[in-house]
Amino acid sequence: MTADFGDGVTKTLMQNQQWMQNTITINYPTVNENKLLKFNITYTDGSTLTTYAGIGIGSDASVNSLTARGTSGLMRHNSTIDDSNGAIGQLEYRIFYGDQNSNNVLKKPFIIVDGFDPGDIRRILEDDCATDPNCIKANKDWGTKTYESVSFLMKYNNQDKDLKA
Q: Model-level pTM?
């Protein structure tokens, strides 16, 4: 498995079912731009798969407290892959930074990718659904049950601290 994290450098992540590196450093010298990530997988039978993702590199100047925990805005990436046999997907993501990380620097990223679920009505935060007419329509019965956003579901069985932060 190889990856180009949008910096033009192909990195080998896995070879012969073994991870090649424990950590990877990627430097993005410019903020406020989008990067296209490209992942290539070669299976043992010789077949290959290439998949793409996008990430927005930016900073939030409004977050400046030493005890603040930064959060990016909701970002979307629409697929541009021309495939007449498939469906064009849309990725939604939000970055949560740790305690006392008001400068919004990814220090030890922990990435969770929600699968491609056509018709999935969950949003990253409950507030994201409240501003999306399609999500509101799909969740008309909020009064009878608790809306479970992706963030709400991220519990890691740690009694001392919720590890989302």
A: 0.40
